[in-house]
Amino acid sequence: MISVKSLLVSAALCLSPIMVVSDVPSLQGEDAPEFMEAVQAWSDGEDLAALQSLSEQAQQGNAAAQILLASIASRSSFHVHVTSEMDRKERIALLRKPGGLSGKSWLTEAQNSEPLALALLQVAKFENKAPAIAVLVELGEPITAMLAAQSMLHGGEGADLVDVLQGLDHKLPEEASIFLYWALYLQKYSSDGSNHGGSASLAWLNTGDDRFMSSELAWGIFSPRELISDSDVREAATKLSPEIVAWTPIRNFCNNFCADEVPDCTITAAALLSSPYSPRSPLQSLITNEDYWSSDRIEGDVARSIIDIRDWEFDSEYSYNQCFTSNMRELQRAHWP
Questions:
Q1: 273 by DSSP, 3-state: which?
Q2: Among 89, 133, 255, 261, which residue carries the largest CB count within 10 Å?
């Protein structure tokens, strides 16, 4: 059987520090003054005005606006506080390209001129996922690529993913290391004909290496119940919570609201995120995570990225840190529709 040590060595040799994308090609329209103004308005939390401007520019053929608007539309936490009060027709007109009963993603228009739009469409399709992942990494969307990689690994496609990532390792964030480790493990088992290929449990071996453990935690692998009942998970999360880049926005929330309880607050928030690696920029190649996390809108997006706890009883078995839950409840009441 392949040893954990040999896999750690293989994965470590393939990974470099967090990348800085500097050679991503520009999207058509991203330097237009009206587009830059809309991006700033969105970052400032002026959602309706920003979305209306992006929608108008998308209809006028601005590919950057089309891709950004499609990315915002794909995650309800970015717009539900605005669109939930609209009727269906108005909401579709604001967020989607005209066509059919429910409109179409603006990516279907932008794909005609922008490889990024085509890759974002293809990565959602099982048969096109692998090549699309490579394109997304090259074009400055590594987090979206790694979320797709996660689904490939759940399907036992470790060997295919290793092939895809050849030569791209230096463009991956360090918190993607668990995926390469998992892929190498699955590749070995697949080549041996093992019936364990595709088992999701293979990803969560206890390597004893903080680098891989922090990578595991960054992708949301523990539940509120585990946080309470599993001391190993709780201790690992507490120890590593200051270092996990993906947790920056929730850690910032905890520094602002629970300064004396930041580690406990942070791991409670991480356990209650509604989706992996959230919240993050809708389009990292246009709006860096760092800019997004420091924007005026981040407080509301964080509130909408946490499972709805507005009606929780705070002696709940799922409530590990009371400072977090009480402050988040009030924030959600202010920012949820």
A1: strand
A2: 133
Q: Which helix (H) or strand (E) segment is 107 a member of?
A: helix 107-110
Residue type, position 293, single letter:
W
Looking at 205, 222, 251, the residue that finishes a domain is: 205
Q: Is the peptide bond before 242 cis (omega within 30 degrees of 0)?
A: no
| Amino acid identity, position 76 | S
Residue 136, class by beta-carbon neighbours within 10 Å (0-12 exposed, 13-18 middle, 19+ buried)? buried
Range of the domain at 102: 27-107
Q: Which residues pair with 97 in a beta bridge?
A: 104
> Which of residues 158, 184, 205 is at a domain's end?
205
Exposure string of 254-285, with b = 16+ CB inside 10 Å and e = fewer, is: beebbeeebbbbbbbbbbbbeeebbbbbbbbb
pLDDT digits 0-9 by tens, 294-335 = 999 999 999 999 999 998 775 565 678 999 999 999 999 999
pTM listed for this prediction? 0.89
Query: Does 38 reside within a domain?
Result: yes
**Per-residue pLDDT reduced to its tens digit, 251-268:** 999 999 999 999 999 999
Q: Could you give the number of structural domains in the chain?
A: 3
Residue 212 CA to residue 302 CA, distance in Å, equals 25
DSSP 20-80: ----PPPPTTTT-HHHHHHHHHHHTT-HHHHHHHHHHHHHTT-HHHHHHHHHHHT-GGGTH
